[in-house]
UniProtKB/TrEMBL annotation:
This is DUF3221 domain-containing protein. It comes from the Bacteria. Gene3D superfamilies: Nucleic acid-binding proteins (2.40.50.140). InterPro entries: DUF3221, NA-bd_OB-fold. Pfam families: DUF3221.
Length: 124
């Protein structure tokens, strides 16, 4: 019995002293896919809010106005391959984007292959 106990304790200590570490794959760098969200324009930067839903347009507009005062209105910046895209968008527009890559930075930079405007925002 003492031998078995000694054996299991030895295995436990040897296992905990190994040099293996948890590593994360580079998947987050190369995530591709389709995302839905809202646009916030500030200067020449297009911010993307993809994790929010709004019950009313007033709620959306209030949120956009509140975010405009922050240094980074969202965690993601869109970078379009089509340079005409910047002229087609307005703050509050709901869009679908197809991304080829999301670069690790803060805020994250999403490389947009194509996009479509789902709903245009109307000014009050």
């Amino acid at each position: 019995m003492k031998r078995a106990l000694f054996f299991f304790i030895s295995i436990f200590f040897l296992g905990s002293c190994s040099n293996s570490y948890v590593t994360f794959s580079g998947e987050s760098k190369n995530r591709t896919g389709q995302y839905k969200g809202y646009v916030i324009l500030r200067n020449d930067t297009v911010f993307f809010v993809g994790d929010k839903t709004f019950e009313t347009k007033v709620e959306l507009q209030n949120y956009m106005e509140q975010q405009m005062n922050k240094e980074h209105p969202s965690d993601t910046v869109l970078s379009f391959k089509d340079k005409n895209a910047y002229d087609q968008l307005k703050t509050g527009d709901k869009i679908n984007v197809w991304s080829s890559q999301i670069l690790e930075s803060y805020p994250a930079k999403m490389i947009v292959e194509k996009f479509e405007i789902v709903e245009k925002i109307e000014k009050r």
